[in-house]
From TrEMBL:
Designated name of the protein: Glutaminase
Chain residues that bind substrate: 77, 126, 173, 180, 206, 258, 276
Lineage: Bacteria, Pseudomonadati, Bacteroidota, Sphingobacteriia, Sphingobacteriales
EC class name: hydrolase
Organism: Pedobacter westerhofensis
Record gene name: glsA
Keywords noted in UniProt: Acetylation, ANK repeat, Hydrolase, Repeat
Superkingdom assignment: Bacteria
Amino acid sequence: VIKDAIQGNLIIPDFNSFCKEIMSIYELTNKNKGGNVATYIPQLGRVDPEKYAISICTVSGQQFSIGDSTEDFCIQSICKPVNYCMVLEEHGEDVVHQHVGREPSGIGFNGLVLNENNLPHNPMINAGAIMTCSLIRPELEMADRFEYVLNFWNKITGHQNAMGFNNSVYLSEKETADRNFALGYYMKEKGAFPEHTNLLNTLEFYFQCCSIQTDTNAMAVAAATLANSGICPLTNERAMENNTVKNCLSLMNSCGMYDFSGEFAFTIGLPAKSGVAGGLMLVIPNLMGIAIWSPKLDKSGNSVKGIEFSKELVKRYNFHSY
Ligand code: DON
């Protein structure tokens, strides 16, 4: 960052003014008291609903955070785009899409429905995420598979040792996972999984991935890696191929925000992924990654403040893709 600053190569030369604007959006959106914390996983219902954090990391590695940005929260569904990237890297697009579609489902994230080919609609909903989990290094022992996922997160967050695991959420998640078990068995019955898939291990692995935790600081770096075509801006290490990022951002754009994805793509015009713990990962390609965390959710399951923030951001800056 310092070298780029001296040479005048930073992507946002007047980063201070930009940060001031972000602070002002934070103050404004923090007044919104709407929404409810997710309670279908009891442990998630116990977080402080007033937490609010925003972090930014540009593709030149400029960073800014405000609010509760060093407090961990569960990534939940934000594991979905990252797991999708991992399987694209491992198997390539053709193999991956023999097992999962790339069309919005038009129904809720845990909908008990498959597409006309008896495959999950896309990797951003539960059925599709269970499917991508089945494709992540299935030959490894469970402990090694989990470590593999954490290592990937470490790469895309710039090796800050920022990834953790919330065991209580994991146990709670597993106890309340009847729908996910149903989805798994339904897909098994339809022959959607790769041969030799161990369904119970796959589900277990999916619950573990949802229970990974981190803070907005680190998540913004992951988002910036996606904004930067797969190269982590803090380490300059390539974590994935351009094409993987292209595919992932395309599906985040069309399917990343539950039943609000079409509306989000229309009004905000940026690829994003939300999670039921109130996290929101927003990517502005070639410019920056943003992570927002605020646990109160709207009726679609998206963070109320996260949506408010995104709306206000594109009102003040011309970030909408079109
Ligand atoms: O599978 C579940 O029930 C959740 N843990 C998924 C989390 C989530 O954020 C829903 N997203 N699409």
